[in-house]
Design brief:
six-stranded mixed beta sheet; Deoxyribonuclease I, Chain A; globular; alpha+beta
């Protein structure tokens, strides 16, 4: 079973590029999307050519945030949000239940260029972890998406100039990721590639992608009990169309 996660930075924009042929070529069993920036109907219309079952969570604010899950097989159940009103207005979470695990796609709030949401982001991390651990009481979890944080120095091209100065590499955000890992959620890419420097997001400024001045902020985290089911984890940075690229895992059937 192949699962892709992709922050598309606007589903309507990316489908005017190579998104459809790229996803047809990858032929994933499930595609998880973040930052769709569209209504449910707009998302479904944009991806209908792919022929998946489509589940969408849209933000109250139009053209902002939003997530989707595209699945070849219909999940056993699908739920939306985490049950906390202050977090549930921006369409950031979808959970699809399969036979042996829960699959959660998430678009974690960005602390913002002026760090205006850094405190809110810390509360989000605590509440989202509690949500995941509650699910884990029933089945292992596979959680993927844009976590808006580079965890370690190896996860961004320029750690020193960004540390405690830029959203995505503040100590409070790093602490949040530390806590996910400390609570039994394994970063699959780093598990398989402990020393590899590869990124999943690049600023649109100053030719950052061409120069590969990037950040790894898109993850697949899995319950420790599920780790032996994961066969591969990788970053598909040859795929363009967004400021992010897709990441994926391959799991045993």
């Amino acid at each position: 079973m192949k699962i892709i996660s992709f922050n598309v930075n606007g589903i309507r924009a990316i489908t005017k590029k190579d998104f459809i042929p790229d996803m047809q070529k990858e032929d994933a069993d499930v595609i998880c999307l973040q930052e769709t920036k569209a209504t449910g109907e707009q998302v479904k219309h944009a991806v209908e050519e792919l022929g998946y079952h489509v589940f969408v969570n849209e933000a109250e604010r139009k053209g902002y945030s939003g997530t989707a899950i595209l699945s070849k097989t219909e999940p056993l159940s699908v739920t939306y949000d985490i049950g906390i009103e202050e977090h549930d207005k921006e369409g950031r979470v979808i959970c699809a239940e399969y036979d042996n695990f829960y699959l959660i796609t998430v678009y974690v709030p960005n602390s913002g260029s002026a760090l205006a949401r850094l405190e809110y982001r810390q509360q989000w991390d605590k509440d989202f972890l509690a949500y995941l651990k509650n699910l884990e009481k029933k089945k292992p979890v596979v959680v993927c998406g844009d976590f808006n944080v580079a965890h370690k120095d190896i996860d961004l091209a320029r750690p020193k100039p960004n540390y405690n100065k830029a959203a995505g590499y503040m100590q409070e955000e790093i602490d949040g990721m530390d806590t996910y890992v400390a609570n039994g959620l394994v970063d699959t890419y780093r598990h398989f590639h402990p020393t590899k420097e590869k990124y999943s997001w690049w600023s649109y400024r100053a030719g950052a992608r061409f120069k590969n001045i990037g950040w790894r902020i898109d993850y697949f985290l899995v319950s420790e009990s599920f780790l032996d089911q994961v066969e591969e984890a990788s970053i598909l940075n040859e795929i363009h169309g967004s400021d992010h690229c897709p990441v994926f895992i391959q799991i045993k059937d």
